[in-house]
Amino acid sequence: MSENLNIGRYSLGMGDRFGQQAEAQLRACLMAAEQGAPVVPVWNKSNREHMIIGSEPSSVRAAAEAAIKNLNWNSEWHVDADHIRLETVDRFLSASDFFTIDVADSIGKPASAEDVKAFVDKHPELIGSVEIPGVAGGATTTRTEVERVANKFLFAVQEAGAIFRHIERNKGKGRFIAEISMDETDSPQTPIELLIILAAIADEEIPVQTIAPKFTGRFNKGVDYVGDVAQFEKEFNDDLCVIKFAIQKYGLPANLKLSVHSGSDKFSIYPAIRRAVKKHDAGLHLKTAGTTWLEEVIGLAEAGGEGLILAKEIYAAALEHIDELCAPYATVIDIDRAKLPSATAVSNWTSEQYVNALRHDQSCKEFNPHLRQLLHVGFKIAAKKGARYLDLVRANQSVVARNVTHNLFERHIKPIFLMN
Ligand SMILES: [Zn+2]
């Protein structure tokens, strides 16, 4: 029997909606390794994305395997069944070795009164003044407060346990990495809530290796963080202390780390994340997903000709179907429709205008975060274009790949993981 599958310290979740960019993405991890920062590539695709695109989980593994082979990647990598639930996990079982168990929808549904009471009785250490090394002043709670948190989260954690055990029965003990995600919900979890949640996770005997809370502030898809950066930094540091404390107190896996979802393009908090990770000698999983698809559109626009024409058509169609495209992503986008250019205006754009509006360069006056978010959720439009989209991406792969690698390495890996 081999050792348990444990995720390395720094990992990068990468989405590749159309299965064309695994190699360009892996190249960014190779560059990181060459510069002394081993970053584990994790290819993630959610059930929602598979449904929208009409793809199968096995295609993610196949694309990753081809990239691994072509680039001779000989260290760790994973395929993440992103945001799965009991009713969606089955088709991911054979292709994935990393499972992001999403219980956000169950937050707020109460567990049984006996279970809540049993939990609170079992954890007197959570009541009163709780000394958490590194958290200034510790935390003070009351029995009522712990009951409130248990009422809000215990059922969700029990559900995570049921999903975890279902995966374990199929994959085998220690044969996969478990993440628990609670990011796609309305209100952020405070550090003390995180501690109570981790106690419950330990009670459920889930060997969780990464946990994705909802942090303070807005984590809109593909654009910068919106919120109080100082507050974020304080809570992020406190979360890291809470994790370290919970590992010791409750025997959770020693490599348990935070997972930052919708983590792409959060440029204003990357310095805070980097400082905190360094200070606490902690690990980190940064999950990005749709940014790579946007680099495909940028590549097409940059290539000009048919590529630019298609990029314009995709925008026009996205604008036309905006309600339908935005609905599944309501908690993670913020689009001011008044700031979206008309399809006619965009149809007259040059390559440079299109690229400038879409590429996430905050120093560029033409950058438009509203257009960027709309296109971020607009991949269904490209999926509907079918072969025409894929053929053009393939025909312009060198331009696209350059953008994909550059985006991951320069804008994400460098500011976060290159510690020196
Ligand atoms: Zn997420």
Judged by helices, strands and strand pairing, the structural class is alpha/beta
* Helix run count: 17
CATH topology assignment of the largest domain = TIM Barrel
Largest sheet: 8 strands, parallel, barrel
User: How many runs of DSSP E, i.e. beta strands?
Assistant: 10
Q: What integer is the average pLDDT?
A: 95
What order do the helices and strands follow? EHEHHEEHEEHEHEHEHEHHHHHHHHH
Give the ligands present. zinc ion
| Strand neighbour order, sheet with most strands | 1-2-3-4-7-8-9-10
From the structure above, extract its key features.
420 residues; alpha/beta; two-stranded antiparallel sheet; globular; binds zinc ion
Concise overview:
Helix content is 50%, strand content 11%.
Outline the secondary-structure elements.
Elements: E1 10-14, H1 22-34, E2 40-46, H2 47-53, H3 57-70, E3 78-84, E4 98-102, H4 113-122, E5 128-130, E6 139-141, H5 143-171, E7 177-181, H6 191-203, E8 208-212, H7 229-250, E9 257-260, H8 270-279, E10 284-287, H9 291-303, H10 305-320, H11 322-326, H12 343-347, H13 351-358, H14 369-376, H15 379-385, H16 387-395, H17 397-417
Parallel strand pairs: 1-2, 1-10, 2-3, 3-4, 4-7, 7-8, 8-9, 9-10
Antiparallel strand pairs: 5-6
